[in-house]
Structure formats: C-alpha cells, structure tokens
Amino acid sequence: MAKQQAADRPLTRIQQKNRQTILDAALEVFSQHGFRGATLDQIAEVAGLSKPNLLYYFPSKEAIHAELLSGLLDTWLDPLRALDAAGDPVAEILAYVRRKLELSRDFPRESRLFANEILQGAPRMMEALQGDLKALVDEKAAILRGWAETGRIADLPPHHLIFSIWAMTQHYADFDVQVRAVLGPGHDPYAEAEDFLDLLFRKLLVP
Amino acid sequence: MAKQQAADRPLTRIQQKNRQTILDAALEVFSQHGFRGATLDQIAEVAGLSKPNLLYYFPSKEAIHAELLSGLLDTWLDPLRALDAAGDPVAEILAYVRRKLELSRDFPRESRLFANEILQGAPRMMEALQGDLKALVDEKAAILRGWAETGRIADLPPHHLIFSIWAMTQHYADFDVQVRAVLGPGHDPYAEAEDFLDLLFRKLLVP
DNA sequence: GTCTATACTCTGATAGAC
DNA sequence: GTCTATCAGAGTATAGAC
Q1: Nearest by CB to A119, which of B116, B129, B160?
Q2: Percent helix, strand and coil across chain A, each to the nearest 5
Q3: Is the pTM of this model over 0.90?
Q4: Which nucleotide is nearest to A14 (CA to C1')?
Q5: Smallest CA–C1' separation from A56: which nucleotide?
Q6: DSSP one-letter string for B61-112
Q7: CA–CA dist A24, A113 (Å, integer)
Q8: What pLDDT shows up at residue A4?
Q9: Which residue among A17, A86, A105, B174 is buried most deeply as judged by most CB within 10 Å?
Q10: C-alpha B201: how far from chain center
Q11: Could you report the per-residue pLDDT of A66-107, keeping only the tens digit for each?
C-alpha cells in the first residue's frame, strides 16, 4: 500500500498533483465555511474526486485543514519580516503595505481561511500567535518606535500602526463581497485601494 | 397550543425571556462557528434548554439565524446614518469612528456574526448589501466628497475612506484574540484603539 | 411548556472489490 | 489508486407523554 511507503520516498507526480487538487478544493471550502462548516462531500465535489479518495491522500479532515494552516502564517508574515531597519522608514512601511495588499489580492482565500480561524478563537493557531507572531511584531514594533523617537516618522503606537495595516489590507480580501456590493460594477477595488492606502500612510507617517 | 396563538397576541414574559435566552446563546455560537458550523446542540447547551425546546420557540435553525441577522445591519449602520452634512466635517467623522469602535467594543459577537456572513459570501444578506447598504454609503460618500471639494477635509476617495473606518474599528472585535495575543497581557485594546484612531483620522483628514 | 423518544438525513471514516 | 458499499455517530426536526 502506498500509504505505508517509507517517509523518505518522494511522492509520484500523480500523487503530488492530486494532493494539490485536494488542498486547493479544501482551501475553497474551508475559507468560506470554516472548519466545522466545511464537509468532505463539498471538498470532494470541488476537487472532482470521491470522498474515500480524499481520505486516501489525507488521513482525516483535520489533517487537510492542518496542512493548509501550516505555512499560512509564515507566508502571511513574510512581508513584515522584510521590513528593514536600515532602509528609509516611510519607504519601508509603504512597501510593506503594498506587499500586504498584494497578498490579499493574490491570495484572498488564504486570507479568509486565516480570518475564519481567528473568528473561531484561533483554536489551532493560538500558540503560533502568542509565539512566533508576537515575537516578530514586537521586533518590528521596536524598529518603528526607534524611527518615531528619532523623528523619522510620526509618533504613533507601533503595534496599533501594524494592526491598522493588517485591518485595511485584509479587509479587501475578507470583506470582498461587501466592498464590491457597495462600490457597484465598474470598479477595481484593489487598484483603488493601492492608491488610497499609499496616500493614507504617506500622510499619516509624516512626523 | 401556544404555537397556534393569534399572531397579534403578545408573548408572555416567560416566552420573551426564553426567546431572548435562545437568541443570546445562538449569537454566541453562530458568531464563532458560522451558520453551518453551529449546531442546535451547542446552542441548547449554552442556553440551558433542551433541543426540542429550542424548536418550540423557533421553527428552525435557519429561523434563529435569520432573526439574529435581521436588524443587525440596521444597528451596524446607525452611526453612519447619524453623520450630519450640516455638522463640522472633521468632528462628524471622528464621532463616527468613535461610535463605530464603541459598537465593536460593546457588541463584538454581533460584529463577528456579520463577519462570518460576509466571509461566506453573504448568502443571506447580499440583497441588503446591494440595496440599503449601498444606498446609505453612496449618500454619505456624497457628503464626504462635498466636504473634500470645498477644502474642508483632505481629498480622499470617500468610499475607501469609509471602508478604512469599517476595517480598523471592526478589526478590534473580529480579530480580538489576535490583537490580545500580540499585545500581551496588561493592555486595554479598545482604549488604546480609541486614542490611536482619533489621532490617525485627525491627521488624515487635514486638507 | 417542557421533556423523552425517535425518525431521518448528513458526515467522517473504513472495508473490500477491481 | 480509485471505486461502491457501508458503518457509526452527529445533526435537524418531529411525535407524543406529562
């Protein structure tokens, strides 16, 4: 049985492709309905596979969900990691805002998967939030505070400044249907958001 | 049978109290797990009632959820409705931000219920979003545009300005666990947010 | 008005044929 | 590797005793 193959044996191309198909379908369903609201039936239908076949590739519903979550936080934080204390303060922050907005635009389902997990009280991510996430934010907040104290950007509470960047960029992915319903047809929310957020933070950060 | 009582017969005090107990418990569960992820078992347990008893007061799970949603958008938009074209522009907007943040602080479960509905693609609210919501936002956006054109506030795209207010205030309710995980103990997120958002929009709105 | 019992469907997961 | 068949448990909802 393939299931019992040695852990170091690489997956075949077909296996990799099917795993990817399943994960993509699962992302679609989990990001919309959350863990409990999603069903294997739905995921199987979206993936175009049978339910038992899903469970041939993954041991359980939990395992599929865990696979999606693992790495998600890392991807989500990469733009913040790139914030460079040696760079130009305003340019660094604006670049961070832009990259974060690009993530929302290019990976809205991942954003909603994350949002669902947090809304549910982060039962599967709390550790990461209090560990890696807090550590990284504290580190970068210290950089922001340094810039503020030397008068290179406005004096704002750094943690809440970061929250505001998260809130505004993720809003366009998580509340996409509301944004489009309010704007009406003929708009490109992300293109407009890019200009608006650039303007907003440029003005906000002036000392 | 009480179920068959005339529609105009008022509910007894006990009935009103039980209905309220159920709705409160349902809000707790629906706001955390979304419609599909929530179960009547959970709601019944939180309410301290039996499952069949829930279904004595409400005809179905859908009906409980619908009751919670109806009126929610209205409550949510009341602060925006209060935005007065005749008032002082900056003061009006800052007051709106403050009232919106107070809603997040005082009714975080309602905020998360709404977020869940939008994340799921707003299957039960799309009409209201495209109708009442869009109409009100367009109306208030026109006021903001007027203020901008006469140089009383900065020239910003009014719809996105409103989105940014929604995003930042609701973030503190919807992502509460993340905010608290990052800030660590000894913080009052909403108190800090009030000062920060006041500062942010005060600075942003200067022409 | 509230409970126990239960009907019936959905859901996650397994067995076993091919 | 993939399918059909199926199980056990959970889920919504109803019937009927009290």
Answers
A1: B116
A2: 75, 0, 25
A3: yes
A4: D1
A5: D1
A6: HHHHHHHHHTTHHHHHHHHHHT--TTS-HHHHHHHHHHHHHHHHHH-HHHHH
A7: 12
A8: 39
A9: B174
A10: 21
A11: 999 999 999 999 999 999 999 999 999 999 999 999 999 999
Handedness of CA A147, A149, A153, A156 (dihedral sign): positive
Quick: pLDDT tens for B139-164.
Answer: 999 999 999 999 999 999 999 999 99
Q: Is B33 on the interface with A (CB under 8 A)?
A: yes
Structure tokens at A130: 């209090």
Nucleotides of D under 7 A from a protein CB: 1-5, 10-16
Domains defined for chain B, CATH in brackets: 2-59 (1.10.10.60), 68-205 (1.10.357.10)
For chain B, the 3-state helix, strand and coil shares in percent, each to the nearest 5, are 75, 0, 25
- In chain B, the residue whose alpha carbon lies closest to the alpha carbon of A193 is B160
How many angstroms is C1' of C2 away from CA of B56?
9
Does residue A65 approach strand C to less than 7 Å at its CB? no
Task: Decide: residue B181, CB within 10 A, 0-12 exposed, 13-18 middle, 19+ buried.
Answer: buried
Q: Is the CB of B169 under 7 A from strand C?
A: no
Coil/strand/helix, residue A8: coil
Find out whether A52 and B139 touch, Cβ atoms under 8 Å: no
Which alpha helices (H) appear in A38-107, and where do they start and end? 40-47, 51-57, 61-69, 72-81, 89-106
Quote the radius of gyration of chain A (alpha carbons, Å).
20
